[in-house]
Amino acid sequence: MIICYTGMGKGKTSACLGQALRALGHGYSVCFCQFIKRDHQSGEQSMLKRLLGDRFLANGVGMVSQAKDRSEHKKRAQQVLLFAHQHIPTTWLLILDELCVALSFGLIDTQACIDLLTFARSQHCHVIVSGRKAPPWLCAMADCVTVMENEKHPFQKGEKALKGIDY
Fold it and tell me: Is 167 inside any structural domain?
């Protein structure tokens, strides 16, 4: 299966984390990749390192929208794709957190992403992708798409991200 969590609302990465925990609880192998987040940026990363070891990679540079030169972002995103590709043959569940963001900023090539997802299917590896602005071709390719929407969020009142809740 290919599962996509997208939309402007909160909860996409949290859903990915829940799926990873569920699969691990059943004894399945999980590989978790983060495209945009820097290593040591969010609370889940220390736990993922403990649970997954070298099957976890947070290789982002941070906020892409603020970068004038995106060459390092592109280089790091390519490294994540290669990491994911190498782990597919021995992975039951591959999570590509913020893949949609990497696609929307042109950090990775659409065809390279399609090739990765096609290879995962051929290896019977389930894939979960997340991020805002999932492209229509990805939603069409996915077996399950969930769109997260904000009905109410503290950011709308000007409140800052809360450690342990938002990161």
Answer: no
Contacts of 66-72 spanning 24+ positions with Cβ under 8 A: 70/105, 70/106, 70/107
CATH number at residue 97: 3.40.50.300
pLDDT digit string (tens) for 107-161?
999 999 999 999 999 999 999 999 999 999 999 999 999 999 988 888 788 888 8
Tokens 């990873």 belong to residue: 20
Please give the tally of structural domains in the chain: 1
> Is residue 150 a part of any domain in this protein?
yes
Distance CA(99)–CA(147), nearest Å, equals 15
For position 162, what pLDDT does the model report?
Answer: 80
> What's the rounded Cα separation, in Å, for the pair 44 and 137?
29
Task: Burial-class residue 26 by CB neighbours within 10 Å (0-12, 13-18, 19+).
Answer: exposed
Q: Which residues pair with 112 in a beta bridge?
A: none
Question: CA 132 from chain center: how many Å?
Answer: 10
